Amino acid sequence: MNFAEAFSWINIRFLLDGLLITVEVALLSILFSFVIGSILGLIRYLKIPVVSKIFGLIIDLIRNLPLLLIIFFAYFALPQIGIRFDIFWSAVAAMTIFESAMLSEIIRAGLNSVPKGQTEAGLSTGLSYAQTLRYIIIPQAFKAMVPPILSQFISLIKDTSLATIISLPELTHNARIIYGQNTTYVIPMFIAMALLYFCICFALSRVVKRLKLGF
């Protein structure tokens, strides 16, 4: 086991290239899933007849499926119905679908955590329901939502490693290529992966902790 050779500049650069892909997939998935999840969570909170129930069934279905299955679906099944993505965007699509379902429930729970009396108080002052939601309910719910949302984003970053199954050149995939060429690099590569994932996730976890203390 030669750490010096395993951590050559070529290998380190290859790992960093994979880390960049990991971060890009994670950031895009976080952006898209936050927007979609917020919309879905709001729809479920408003209990729109029929629509909320339909979305609820879809969300429950997605939340109870393995992310790996959704990745396979995005990469192998969607092309069968004419929707084609390359490996990168298949990973983003799968992560977005899964995380949107998870975030929608976090957002709905956050909105439901605000006492109903707050809504009644807002309406009694002459505010419309939309204004009450915007100026009273959402700001209060936001405090309850932020820590679990950020925790979910941390999980998403780690879940990007599952995309190695469709050969997305992310961190785990590139590490596998390196130690696949020389089996003595297995432990060094696992150490490198652990450190890189830890640095990103630990930094975000500190943000979550600070936000919890602040709220």
UniProtKB/TrEMBL annotation:
The keyword Transmembrane applies. It is found in: Cell membrane. Keywords: Cell membrane, Membrane, Transmembrane, Transmembrane helix, Transport. The chain crosses the membrane at residues 20-42, 54-75, 87-107, 185-205. PROSITE patterns: ABC_TM1. Residues 19-208 form the ABC transmembrane type-1 domain. InterPro entries: AA_ABC_transptr_permease_3TM (IPR010065), ArtM/GltK/GlnP/TcyL/YhdX-like (IPR043429), MetI-like (IPR000515), MetI-like_sf (IPR035906). Its main location: membrane. It is a multi-pass membrane protein. Belongs to the binding-protein-dependent transport system permease family. PANTHER family: INNER MEMBRANE AMINO-ACID ABC TRANSPORTER PERMEASE PROTEIN YHDY, MEMBRANE COMPONENT OF AMINO ACID ABC TRANSPORTER. This is Amino acid ABC transporter permease.
